[in-house]
Amino acid sequence: MTIDGIATPGKIIAVHLNYPSRAAQRGRTPAQPSYFLKPASSLAATGSELERPAGTELLAFEGEIALVIGEPARRVSPADGWRHVASVTAANDFGVYDLRAADKGSNVRSKGGDGFTPLGPRLIPAASVDPEALRVRTWVNGELVQEDTSDTLLFPFGQLIADLSQLMTLETGDVILTGTPAGSSVVLPGDLVEVEVDAPDAAGAPSSGRLVTRITQGTSAFGDFGTKPAVDELQRVEAWGSEEELAAAIAAGRVSAGASHAGRVGSEASVSRPAGGPGLDTPAPQAPPATRPAFELTPALRDRLASVGVATLSVALRKRGYHDVFIEGVHANGPGRRIVGRARTLRFIPFRPDLFASHGGGFNAQKRAFDTVEPGEVLVVEARGERGTGTVGDVLALRAQVRGAAGIVTDGGVRDFDAVAGFDIPVFSQGPHPSVLGRRHVPWETDVTIACGGAAVQPGDVIVGDGDGVIVIPPALVEEVVAEAITQEQEDAWVAEQVAGGASVDGLFPMNADWRRRYEQEVQGR
């Protein structure tokens, strides 16, 4: 296929997530871009018809800005990346969620079908537009359903080209699909989908024109010699965009509530969707815990975590849907104290005389926890927020310090508070209380999932604490969360320098496109 004289590209590379609006919808914001490939046979021109494969129900559109490479790019910098773009145009990155599981997230069949990448109809010369002033819009049956601009991108065009060109040569005619904003949803046979990319503020307001695709119903059934379409309620919610969109589609009659799975949503439209669940524009899901490489809190990673604040880490976690990871109400036993380590858990239950008689004496769970804590671990104690008694005193705190523990966190009280405050080991608690263990608690068990200060804590979770409080980070998220937090604090420090120099916060905090360009130029200049 040829569009405006550009021959069939050797490569079509698509970005998983790139618009904050879409990332918020997905419940996760990637620290760095990730990609998948689409075959050249998936290309189609404007006015084409696209079959929804027989036996499927979740064909979704994704309006995108497509970059067409001009001068080949190999190991270029982000600042030079845009120079290698010859033109931009509209693209529609269609995908079938019913085949999401077929190729373990590579999207070969879910997004690689014939006609699944309409492109065009016209090319906009890259030299005529500002890469941060492009707009993408999508209409379904004449209704505007997607609209966003390139100045909001998580990963600007130049960065994508630089990143990809580190490992492969981007050749003349190659196409990069740069991600879709929020609003992607399911289309049905008979629907008309239109995508347009334009530069409304540029001279002449250049436009790609509308890329038109009509959806039809396929009739060729899948054979028994490969993966067949399959959907569940999670995939339905992901495909439609949200539970609300799915419910609205049912109410509008676009979905038959009660039809079979082969082309319609089942009668159970209420869906519980975990934040950050997989979708067609997210990378492949991680392997089950049993097959993942074991997480290790290395000294280097510990140092990186220690270099950023709990407040910044909490922002990165909230972007990924983790809102209840604060151990509420606890404070350090001295100014400037910090904790970074992996959780070792201890659980107390409410006091009862018979249970205390059976579990409170001897080498009980509390003593075992403090006597066996390993170097670098943080003892996290569930005390149900009970401040009316101590949960640790000077002897046990000293034992944890001698064993090399990274800290102690309890949502209860601390006995011998002044003495403990003089130790090297940081202790976060609800404050002092002179009572001994048997007043309100029974030491019950160790190394189990607990609730401390309203946060779920599992053994091995990463605990970080400073003057703003204590936060719990699931091990699988540590690398991306700390990378994003470090980048954010570097940006915040630069913003603070500008404010100290007299700059207004308007447009600077957060940075608009102009301020971000100045920031990136200064960083690259260093």
Describe the structure.
- The protein has 526 residues and is of the alpha+beta class.
- The chain has 2 domains: 12-229, Fumarylacetoacetate hydrolase, domain 2, CATH 3.90.850; 323-473, Ribonuclease E inhibitor RraA/RraA-like (Glucose Oxidase, domain 1), CATH 3.50.30.
- It is 23% helix and 24% strand.
- The protein has helices spanning 20-26, 78-81, 157-165, 233-240, 243-251, 299-306, 310-319, 353-359, 365-372, 394-402, 417-421, 478-500, 513-525; strands at 12-15, 35-38, 43-44, 48-52, 59-60, 63-69, 85-92, 95-96, 117-125, 135-140, 143-149, 175-177, 192-198, 211-217, 326-327, 331-332, 339-350, 377-382, 407-410, 427-429, 441-446, 450-452, 455-457, 462-466, 469-473.
- Strands 15, 16, 17, 18, 19, 20, 21, 24 and 25 form a 9-stranded mixed sheet that branches. The protein has a 7-stranded mixed sheet with strand order 2-1-12-6-7-9-3, with no helix packed on it. A 5-stranded mixed sheet has the order 4-14-13-10-11, with no helix packed on it.
- Helix 10 links the parallel strand 18 and strand 19 (407-410).
- Helix 7 crosses helix 12.
- The longest helix has 23 residues, at 478-500.
- The two termini are 44 Å apart.
- Residues 257-278 and 284-292 have low confidence and may be disordered.
Question: Which tags fit this structure?
Answer:
526 residues, Fumarylacetoacetate hydrolase, domain 2, Glucose Oxidase, domain 1, 2 domains, seven-stranded mixed sheet, 25 strands, 23% helix, 24% strand
List the helices and strands and how they pair.
Blueprint: E1 12-15, H1 20-26, E2 35-38, E3 43-44, E4 48-52, E5 59-60, E6 63-69, H2 78-81, E7 85-92, E8 95-96, E9 117-125, E10 135-140, E11 143-149, H3 157-165, E12 175-177, E13 192-198, E14 211-217, H4 233-240, H5 243-251, H6 299-306, H7 310-319, E15 326-327, E16 331-332, E17 339-350, H8 353-359, H9 365-372, E18 377-382, H10 394-402, E19 407-410, H11 417-421, E20 427-429, E21 441-446, E22 450-452, E23 455-457, E24 462-466, E25 469-473, H12 478-500, H13 513-525
Parallel strand pairs: 1-12, 3-9, 4-14, 17-18, 18-19, 19-20
Antiparallel strand pairs: 1-2, 5-8, 6-7, 6-12, 7-9, 10-11, 10-13, 13-14, 15-25, 16-20, 17-21, 17-24, 22-23, 24-25
Helix pairs in contact: 4-5, 7-12, 9-10
